[in-house]
Write a structure and sequence with these properties.
alpha+beta, elongated
Length: about 240
């Protein structure tokens, strides 16, 4: 039988543990065998939880002024408390599974998670959620997948750039041929360079030439007028003969 001093130490230890706990589950049992008790304790230990069969009076004192005080009304009959400072989802999974597999031995009384009083159905709902470790694992997988895609895209840029450069290099002769095409078109510009204004000048030149024959036409008229004195010469000669 425990002494008063031992009970006081147990109370202090339980109180301190529950004050730092994030969640706690209260269960009861009947016809419990040693092997089944050990199995249950091992499952809770793997879930990172503590487990202790407590006296109801001691439990009510231990949860006073803590978030678990609202569970005091369930401290009746045989009472055992499982609590954890870690992810409450892991504890919920362990409790709900063991309660389901050993319903003839264990009975779920109540649970407290993040200050909320829960029944077994609510605990099972929490148990269906992924644990913190699973969420971190999934998040890391997503981040890793995104990182791999980013690396693939980054590696694809130089590769695609090299392909484009190669294609440009393959098409370079055709580009040079197109570049030479304007050089052949240059003579067309040269052909157009002699503006038709020059013939216009030549057209005016014939007009000047046309005026020149007119002048020449007048010149014979003058020359035709000059022989008139020549006709007077025989008259003079006649007068000389008359004398």
């Amino acid at each position: 039988m425990k002494t008063r001093e031992t009970k006081q130490k147990d109370l202090v230890a339980l109180t301190e543990s529950l004050q730092n706990a994030k969640s706690a589950m209260v269960v009861s049992f009947t016809k419990l065998s040693v092997n089944k008790d050990i199995e249950f304790r091992n499952n809770l230990r793997e879930a990172g939880a503590n487990y202790q069969v407590v006296k109801n009076t001691l439990a009510r004192i231990a949860v006073k002024d803590t978030p678990f005080e609202q569970a005091s009304e369930h401290f009746k009959g045989v009472t055992a408390i499982a609590w954890t400072e870690n992810d409450p989802v892991i504890l919920s999974k362990a409790i709900s599974k063991f309660m389901k597999d050993n319903a003839d031995i264990y009975t779920f009384k109540t649970g407290v998670v993040d200050g909320r009083l829960l029944d077994l159905k609510q605990v099972q709902t929490i148990a269906s959620l992924p644990s913190k470790e699973e969420l971190i694992s999934k998040m890391l997988w997503v981040l890793n997948a995104q990182a791999q895609r980013l690396v693939t895209v980054i590696n694809a840029v130089p590769r695609d750039l090299a392909i484009v450069i190669k294609q440009i290099g393959d098409k370079a002769p055709a580009g040079e041929a197109k570049a030479e095409a304007p050089a052949e078109a240059a003579p067309a510009v040269e052909a157009e360079a002699p503006v038709e204004a020059a013939p216009a000048v030549e057209a005016e030149a014939p007009a000047a030439e046309a005026e020149a024959p007119a002048a020449e036409a007048e010149a014979p008229a003058v020359e035709a007028a000059e022989p008139a004195p020549a006709e007077e010469a025989p008259a003079a000669e006649g007068e000389e003969k008359a004398e």
